[in-house]
Amino acid sequence: MMVIFVSQCEKKALNRTRRVLDAFADRIGDNTWQTVITEEGLQAVKKLLRKTASKNTAVSCRWLRSRSRSDLLWVVGNRAKFNELGVVAVNRTRKNILHSSWENNWHYASAIQIIATLAALLHDIGKTTAGFQHKLQGLLPMGDPYRHEWLSLKLFEFLIQDCRNDEEWLARFTDLAAWLNTQDPAQWLANTNKEKVEVAEFPPLAQWVAWLIMSHHRLPKKNIDKYYQKYFHAFDHWVKNPKADDSSAFWKFDQLVLHSPVWQKQLKRWAGKALREVVLVQLSESSADEQTAISDAFLLYISRMCLMLSDHNYSSLDKFDLRRVKGDANYTQLAANTERATQTIKQALDEHLLGVGAFAARFARVLPVIAMAKSRLCPCPKSARRQ
To answer: Domains in the chain, ordered, with CATH?
Structure first.
């Protein structure tokens, strides 16, 4: 095979590398070699380079397959000197100037971003109930009769009631305050079927959001007998605690986070984006015409990953972190989580929803470049270790 070696070595490593490569290949430039070599000979070169390698060593080997094609075989030493294709940078900038080179290859990137962000803004709205707030503040020392994911889903069901298609509930979200003024959520929660949600009757995009809300912590146990059936119940040990005695407080609220003006503003923004996103409109219409759910595993699990990572990451931020966002001053008593040591409120609920939404939007935005940016494994960030 014909190969080319490119050296980006520095200091003493440059001379050591030249001595090795000069013995096996013809130098065709100051730091470039070319030769015809067997696979065994190539392994010998790599072994010698690794034996003399230091932190200043950086050598790549490319296989010339044809006149128009060459492949990177390996890099010895500092991989940061080359990108994932073995190309050497001639200029560096922190500014993203070539988005089109990767954005156009991700047909569903914007759709994933919008749905993940909408789900993030809704994923913990069930924590607004009196029972959950009392539990966070240590006034109810017991396990949740119903997990907050289920309560959030029930409130989402309340928000989209009577909507026949995705356009209707998204349009409602663009002016949610006006619609809420005509509703009695307390009465709806008191009269609703607490054990069941008719997700099969939701519009397609609403089903997608509902699945993300319900699965952002855990998935239900697999039931092969009902694998192809449409059903959604408050299963024991998934979202329901069968040992809980009284659950009435978990279906009442003293203050409803849905009325937060700052939260409503972001919900309006992303609902408007969803109404204008061509890919989402096409997905909704095709699923509605075929009377099927959006079941593309790629869309579901990538958007779930965006939501889960954003939720974990934002929850880990301390009160001095500059990435924290501001909620409405009138809703600071509604807690999303508390400090373990002091049991004081760590993040207000509307702030948490807004922050997770912002993180989800940002993370989904860079999905197309993750494969290029992460050309090798790096140490786990401290904020993600608890996951």
So the answer is: 2-91 (3.30.70), 108-372 (no CATH)
